[in-house]
Amino acid sequence: MREITAEAAVHRLHSLSELQPDDRALVAGVPGRAVTYPAGSVLLQQQQAIVNPHLLLSGWAWRTRTLPNGRQQVFAIVVPGDFIGLCWRPKPRALSSTIAITAVKTANAQSLWPVIRGGGQENPGLWEALTLASRHDEMRLLDQVVRLGRQTALERVVSLMLELHARLKTVGLADERGFEMPLTQEDLAAALGLSVVHVNRTVQQLRREGLAEIGSGRVEFLAVDQLKTLSSFEATAQPYAEAI
């Protein structure tokens, strides 16, 4: 799996709020504390006390809750450049579990904790960027609620693909036409509340209508404007910076 660079981590936060040289140095130092976990690892357990935030450097994960009978609800896909356990609550505990879908590499972002707790008194630019990154998580949760509650299967698949593309592009892991995606149709079914058969039919429809190719580890957009219109993507994915 491709790994984001320290420069990409800085760029993502700088796109949210202007970072000063000392801010950049703090963020650039985070990837140096990396640990690798195999697929299926629980990176953060529901109700676990959050000691430090972590930055996902490579691989994909998701935030979920699992019912006693094994049924699972996916709240969000976590991709490189995202933080795990970024929280402002006092004595925070995880409200959901974060589980590795693929092998992943994470970095301890303990060095950012004083900035988070400082309330913007020091490193105000970095504090604002981290605050907005947390708002991104909230907005993605709302987008997921809309997908599962009001969108058709076709709209759900397209909306998620466009969202992932936009997020990966900010850390240099997507090009104009698409991105590498390790999710299987079974994973997409779990994330979107659909059957595997329904996901397969939707993928075939997108290919047949010349809108997108999803398969072989890559998503390729063939008609981006049509896809945005079809999924109401621009209407549901407002600039997150305005949500603070």
CATH 4th-level superfamily of the largest domain: Jelly Rolls
How many helices? 9
Query: What is the H/E string?
Result: HHEEEEEEEEHHHEHHEEHH
Low-confidence stretches: 237-244
Major β-sheet annotation: 4 strands, antiparallel
User: Which percent band covers the strand fraction?
Assistant: 15-25%
What average pLDDT do the residues reach?
A: 91
**Amount of helix:** 40-55%
Tally of individual domains: 2
Broad structural category: alpha+beta
Q: First CA to last CA: what distance?
A: 33 Å
Strand order, largest beta sheet: 1-8-3-6
The CATH architecture of the largest domain can be named as Sandwich
Question: Your description of this structure?
Answer:
This protein is of the alpha+beta class and 244 residues long. It folds into 2 domains: 6-146, Jelly Rolls; 153-243, Winged helix-like DNA-binding domain superfamily/Winged helix DNA-binding domain (Arc Repressor Mutant, subunit A), CATH 1.10.10. 41% of the residues lie in helices and 19% in strands. The protein is built from 9 helices and 11 strands. The protein has helices at 6-14, 21-28, 113-117, 124-150, 153-169, 185-192, 196-208, 224-231, 233-236, and strands spanning 34-37, 42-44, 54-58, 61-66, 72-78, 83-84, 97-100, 104-108, 178-180, 212-215, 218-221. The strands form 3 sheets. The protein has a 4-stranded antiparallel sheet with strand order 1-8-3-6, with no helix packed on it. Strands 2-7-4-5 form a 4-stranded antiparallel sheet. It has a 3-stranded antiparallel sheet with strand order 9-11-10. A hairpin with a 2-residue loop joins strand 10 and strand 11 (218-221). Helix 5 packs across helix 8 (224-231).
